[in-house]
Amino acid sequence: AMAPRTPTDLRDFIERLRAAGELVEVTAPVSSELEITEIVDRVSKEQGPALLFSNVVDSHFPVLANQFGSARRLAIAFGVDDIDEVGARISELLTLTKPPKGLRAKLATARKLGGVARSVPPKQVRASKAPCQQVVHTGDDVDLDTIPILRCWPEDGGRYVTLPLVFTKDRNGNRNCGMYRVQQYDRNTCGMHWQIHKDAADDWRHMPPSGRLEVAVAIGTDPIVTYSASCPLPKDIDEMVFSGFARGRRVEMVQCRTVDLQVPANAEFVLEGYIEQGELRTEGPFGDHTGYYSLADEYPVFHVTAITRRRDPIWAATIVGVPDHEDKWMGKATERIFLPLLQMVQHEVVDYDLPSEGVFHGCCIVSISKKFPAHANKIMHAVWGTALLSLTKSVIVVDDDVDVHDYAAVAARVAECWDPDLDTVYSRGPIDVLDHAPTVMGMGGKIGIDATRPWASEGRDVDAEAAHARAEAVDAEAFARLVRDAGGLNHRVVADAALAIVSVDKQRGGQAQRLLANLVDDDAARGLKLIVAVDASVDVDDLAHVAFRTFGNTDPVRDSVRSSSGGGALGIDATTKLAAEGYARDWPADIVMTEQVKQQVDERWSEYGIPTPGARTVPHEGLAPGETRIRPTDTARGAGGTGNAEMARDGIAAQATQG
Fold first, then answer.
1. Are 260 and 278 in contact (CB under 8 A)?
2. Do the beta carbons of residue 272 and residue 144 sit within 8 Å?
3. Closest CA to 17 of 62, 77, 63, 65
4. Three-state DSSP class for 448?
5. Is the per-residue pLDDT at 508 higher than 90?
6. How far is Cα 24 from Cα 33, in angstroms, rounded to an integer?
């Protein structure tokens, strides 16, 4: 028989990855405490292979990580040559469900829909046919310590299940499946990190006060089923139905042993149990995909009544932290799969991109075929009103001749067409609860940047604006003097993007805002459209990291410094916020691995047999607060550059005054 188009279970996926040269088995002994994280962190940042650790210290079970960490692996998971094909299949499904015209079209549609309907709904199988129940532990035999649950980062509150499919039922008996991290407390209890925006949290809040909510957690399902749990599907679409459609085969489900729920029969592990209304316990901190530790907080307690598993199960895990990790690729899949859905509602959308530096909710770049004045504004509000895109902090809109995935091209168009005074929209709304920047958790400011070509019908003198844009070039020397006089440390001008980045040694409230106010209106900054202030520890030459800090550390309404005279640049304060500035929450710590683990991995790298260099990921806390870095002369970038040469010449004086 022909092999199915999509992997049948996790093992089949592993074999397909192995055959494609996309997986390396690490047979050297490794620890589930921090060591696996450090290895995976390096490999994912080097776009390396999936990793199967078959010799985990103190565990009988292997650990799989980075299974989704490349475009090729996603394509293998979905059984396609290119992940865009999945989006195309979804649009076909949507057109099938619209009423067709004419009898022949109706018959063809009915045939196609019949095929879809047969492949879609999940089907129940007997326990004897379910690999996930080959071994069953209940009661006193439940022991989570036997499973290689990872301790990911040094400050984490404990060991975390990071790729769990959490199944619950709502009051009407409808299935819900989502992905929420699970912290292990002891042999049989865990913390369930349900976020406000997620469906299962909703089920829990509406439970009768006397009640308990049954929960089942599946780990190590086939990749499409795993992906569907992380996918922001509309509330009334069953994740298992979506999986069946994407797999082209129904998902086989089996009844749990101790709770009235069904789970995917092909899972490697299943944890069954319940949550008691009103029972909370401290969960966290956890080094999250935001690149920061999410803070400890009170969350529901999950009591495990059964562990069921395969005879020789594989533990599936994912590592998150400072980008990039495999969640970037899962996010890319979501972005591609949902483009047709976005286009159904907003026909003028040509393409969109969610940069990984924005960690999904920080930034959305949209290209449109512009049809009327202020069209970009309509699209910004559409993004802020669409499902999980509603959490987006910044929306950049460009014309359809710009490739939204080419960030240099997007930046050049922003530099050319965006007028900070006329083309900027501010709004407020819901923000990801994991985002530490807003003053109030879960809500904050938003910014829209209209970088479409201005039209005369928008009241603009198009020719004059174009001539003006060409005439402006930043005087590097003058700008360097200005930055130094205003109290900046290092800086970089990216001339093509009309952007400057300035670092500041922030000791007092309002310091970065005052610095920006001095810069945005000065003649030496003419020709710049955006000036971003970052902390002293941020390397102003690492643009991806500057972008990550800018999206992560800002509330665009609170942190924008506008030109008072008009016509100047827009300043953005992306520094750490202080209590003195009215920021009352705890600012989270950066995620950094311990030196001891880094050293151990450095020394053992050749033992692991991984083909990537395994270079240390550069720590982003490069400077201690108050330290300054004066770069050597050779980093000067000449005329469109930063004027760092002058800074180097004055380096000794600068060190004397700032040290």
1. no
2. no
3. 77
4. strand
5. yes
6. 20
Report the relative pairing of strands 297-309 and 189-192 from DSSP bridges. Answer: antiparallel
Question: Within 10 A of 186 (CB to CB), how many other CB atoms are there?
Answer: 11
Copy the structure tokens of residue 547: 């972008």
**406, 447, 595 from 403: Cα distances, Å:** 5, 21, 41
**What are the tokens at 92?**
């076909």
> Would you say 34 and 24 are in contact if contact means Cβ atoms under 8 Å apart?
no
424-430 vs 443-450, strand pairing mode: antiparallel
The rounded distance, in Å, linking the Cα atoms of 566 and 466 is 18
Amino acid at 457: S
Q: Which two tokens stand for residue 439?
A: 């003053």
Scan for tokens 């930063």, then name that residue. 642
- What is the CATH number assigned to the segment(s) 474-581+629-658? 3.40.1670.10
**Rounded Cα gap, residues 326 and 545, in angstroms:** 17
Q: Which residues are catalytic?
A: 288
CATH of domain 10-82+120-316: 2.30.110.10
CB atoms within 10 A of CB 418: 23
pLDDT at 646: 31
Strand pairing report for 530-535 and 570-573: parallel
Rounded distance between C-alpha atoms, residue 509 and residue 156, angstroms: 30
Sheet strand arrangement including 252-255:
123-124, 252-255, 262-264
Q: Is the pTM of this model over 0.85?
A: no
Where do the structural domains in the chain lie, given as residue ranges?
A: 10-82+120-316, 326-452, 474-581+629-658
Same fold, 326-452 and 474-581+629-658: yes
Q: What is the pLDDT of residues 231-269, one digit of tens each?
A: 877 777 789 988 998 898 999 999 999 999 999 999 999
Residue with tokens 């995909």: 289
Neighbours of 88 (CB within 10 A): 14
What is the tens place of the pLDDT at every residue in 318-365? 998 877 888 888 888 888 888 887 888 899 999 999 998 887 789 999
Give kind and range of the element (H or E) at residue 514: helix 511-520
Helix (H, G, I), strand (E, B) or coil at 397: strand
Task: Please give the structure tokens belonging to residue 640.
Answer: 């469109």
The third-level CATH classification (topology) of the domain covering 326-452 is UbiD C-terminal domain-like (3.40.1670)
- The helix or strand, by DSSP H or E, that contains position 11, with its residue range, turns out to be helix 10-19
Torsion of CA 169, 175, 180, 184, to 10 degrees: 50
Amino acid code (one letter) for 338: F
Tokens 């600068």 correspond to what residue? 654
For CA atoms 432, 434, 440, 442, the dihedral sign is positive
Structure tokens at 462: 């198009």
Task: Give the C-alpha separation, 210 to 278, whole Å.
Answer: 9
CA distance 66 to 260: 32
